[in-house]
Amino acid sequence: MSALRLSFSALRPEPVGAQGVELVTGAPADAQVIALAHEDAHAALELVYGAYKVRVYTFLLRFTSDPELSDDIVQETFTKALVALPGFVREQRVLPWLFRVAHNAAIDQLRRRGRFRWLRLPQLAGTRHEPESPDRHAAIPEREHIETVLRSITPENAAALLLHALEGYSYKEIAEIQGCSLTAVRSRIARAREAFRTAYATTDPPRSSLG
Amino acid sequence: MVGLPHCSPETLSALLDGELSVGERARARWHLESCLECAARLAASRRLDADLRDAGQLSCASLLPFLSAMADDEATAAERTLAVAHLADCAACRGVSAELRGADVRLSTLPAAAPSARVDAFIVALAHPRIRRAFRPVTFAFRTAGALAIATLIAIGSTLLQVSPPAGDQAAQSTEVAMVAAIQRVVFDGHTNTLYLLDSERAEVSAVDATTQSERARVSVGGKPTALALSASTNRVLVLDATSKRLTEIDLSSHAIVATSTLVVTGTPTSLQVDPTSGKIVVASISAPVVNAVPAPPAAASAAGATGHVTVIDPVSKEVDSVRAVDVAPQLVVLDAKGAQALLISARETTVVDAASYKSIDQLPGGVAAAFDVTGAQVAVLSADGNASRVTFRGAGLPASLALPGHPVTLIAMPSGGFAALVDRGTGGEIEVIDASGHLVSSATVVLAGRSVTFDPTTARFAVGGDGGVGLAFSGGSSTAVTAPATSAPPTAPPATAPAASPTPKPSVVAPSPIASVTPAAGPPGLPPAAQLAPNGTYRLALADNHRPVLLAGSGRTVWFLDAAKRLATIDTTTGAITDVAQLPVDGTFTRLLLGTGHLYAVDQGRGRLAIVTIGTGGVDVVGFPFVTSAAGFAVGIDDKIWMAGGESSNVVSFDPATKRVAAIDFRTSSITALHVDSAARVWYAEDATTQALIAVGSPRHASVTSLVMDREGTLWAGTAAGELISVRLGIAGVVASAGGPVAGLVRDASGGVWSFAVAPGTVTYRSLTSPAGPQIAAVAASGLAFDGLGRPWIADPAGAAFGIVVSEGR
Q: How many CB atoms are closer than 10 A to CB B407?
């Protein structure tokens, strides 16, 4: 195994942004991950997990508002990645694939949960909290409000907006992740934004000057 | 068409864009023909498209997607033109447009978060696969939802993981605890028949099978470990590093380090004990030298300043419960088995103190080791007496002292009463067994492989070792010296002694006289003396009092059984002693016994009720199945709650015996056939053949899962009515083996291994799912199966009013 790791270290990118944007996030280049996966899927998994776990988990946590469920889906997603990575072709992209798997699992779970919404036992709350943000002015109520609005939107719409707002994916990429048409993505994002706009318009006291 | 779902906006949009498949298009058109609402929405969309083409006026609502897309630079040139034209005339839309991206801003203010440590640990384990992969010869991935479909996520909270010592568990007063006497570098876990040996130099703890003497595991703990202690209540070996005051905890089942913590202890820790009654950790320490500006007089300082502390630490939180300053410098603290008294041992004196207040009760001479006997009424102190040793006694019916040849090494209490002293005779070690009247009854020479002694009552052998980690030596019978790593000869062993690290077993260890009080039972070690070898190759333990065992539960030293007369009793698998616990309703048809931490559940499927027995008191509550009238799957979680599901109801119900509270969760499936609650308090269920996941993937024969159990490694095992055994791990399922018949049950043994058993008339087929051994067949009419502490199956034979016990080689 050490031989494989050695050959990987030769592939490893220079640590600081010598090659542009992708390295700024600390993420390895997809081509390198895939090359590694062809040699040693387990090493590739470790690399991919370290690089993307926060992004995938954050997306899921926003999407589901459920740390436990997000944990489980992250686990499932990366477990699948171990099997799938060696089959990736060179041009394939890793993170969108992870998002697609996580997205589909989450939608599936939310659908199930929709049927038995009261499965959310009281004990679930407080099992493990996400990291607190610095306690800015009214930060916590704001966060709760955002989560409430997110939960009121259909999962597909919320996911599309989250992928766009958190990850900066283009409509085309989101269409690939969600497995839908461009038109649908456009409509989903617009609806999600409109839901936010109306929620804040109705619950916030009107600001002194608008627009 | 009534009852058909409306077309989604996406469908309509895709229909207009020609992006639907032939089938979808046909379905949509069919629906549109009969649904005015959808037809109207399609017409509106068409108008929108027409508007676009004609560059005409748009309604505000239909403009929204364009505005949104434009804000993201995702609008086409035509869309942009339209939108800009509209915005110029419409103040409302200008307002909307300005606010649209507020959602994005708000979302991006939310903090990032990382998955929990359990996921990290899982992925690390996944990325570093271990040898266990050999057990998954057939693997295939679930479809997307598969793994989650059976892993229904009912987390009940991490507080459940706090383990409290189970009341009434015989393990709490098991023999090995009373024997701890010196600074232990060897401890013996009777439940798994494992010796734990500390190698201080290499900073490793080695787990050695006490029977086969093969090494089971080696755990690197780092630092400079000085002492071991066995914590029965937490199922861990504790490793003390006196220099850094670090406590490392090793799980006895997985042999993994599960916790490290820094002890808040004054001075330098000298010994580590686990209080057998409370499970609390007791650390003796001697005070750090007081740093004075004026140098202390050299000789007087050590004597005058020689004081110490005894610190009691909570085993779970590692917080200090109490600290007692004592006016001796204890090298060692020894607790009696009841936790009533303690000995503070130093070279100058041994103080008997009250274990609660640490007030002095009596003074005895100082020494190298001391111990209470098993009753706590007698004390023996081993000390040097010139070139020889002396054992000083305290207690009724004992002489004042007993002289022994050789240098004193250590002293332990014997589980059957009396003591055993290890002395260094110059040519090797000798173990002197002293009875409860203070007389020497036997002695056995032993390779002095270390300065710690432990006694294994099942094999009636002593193990000596733990000094610098060079080896172990066993006394008695045909046993031989065994060793751990050959680094160097034991520093204390004289050159004449055969090195313990010798690669070939040497018959250098002999037991010249049998030890009367611990004569091994007839038959294989660890079985009750009354067990007789039967013609069919199994041992047979006939039960008195017309006990005809039907159902079994538990594993390890105590096995619970329900007999044909509905009497509930326990049997000690080493002594055969039976304790009647309770009489359950005689009109019940009991099908399952499930053992929790504080309660035992007997499932009366005939009458749809549970008999709940409080362990310790034996009190019985009979309650009807809460919420449901019948159920197929049952499981007990580590929080002692019972879960049940199946039958005609779609509810999965939990019942808490402490609060009598019932929680019901509607899973919308009444086809649940088996349940399991894992140690993370998640409920796993198997659905019947018609549904998805486990069965559809795992059981080619579409058979019902009859039993679900998770092993120590976290692999979930399912046994089916068609005799298939299926493993599920990391979302990957495989049909692993055949059980040899419909799976009657899956059982966990004391070390977390899982066994299946299948019952046919007159025989039982059982096989380990967690070791490579193949199926084994015993010619015993069986109704239940459990495992003793040595992993041997105990088979309930109701017709013969007996237990069949299978003793196979190699375990």
A: 18
